[in-house]
User: What shape does this take?
Amino acid sequence: MGRQNDNKIIESLRTITNADNAWSKLGKVIDTDETLGTCTVETLDSAVQYTNVRISAGQDFNSIRIPAIDSIVIISFLNSDNAYVSLIDEAGKYKITVVDEEGETASLRDILERQNQVIRSYVDEISTAINAATFKHPYGPTIAEPINKVQFDQAKDNADTELDAIDDEIDRLFLPDED
Assistant: This one.
């Protein structure tokens, strides 16, 4: 039953695209152009390079996985001039765009970076407040050392290190925003 449905889908695609000679090839990603949403793929069987292979079959780039360089992909051809990546072995980066509560479009990268900055500012505010604490007593106000200042400073440093690691991971996983 599954094979019969697959054949129907293939036949429908051929009819819609007028592509009687559709085929697929196994290849290795040589280069990517994240701005154009294309890549260059070298076939494994014959070392032929195909340029301008679309990374996504559709024109909607709201959610796209950019294949890693040297990763194995399957490229599908609708005809001799139109190919797209139909299967990715390993994604190098992601580009995901979402619509927020106000209906505004934002990249997931932007959202994560904003949240990371908010958390970082809260950690800084807490640190500043604790380090600036003063207490009143009969002889006048005095600056108080937090009881576990060394431990607190270490916790702040650990939080900063983790937030830096999150920033690095965002940079590694997501494409830079286009201005």
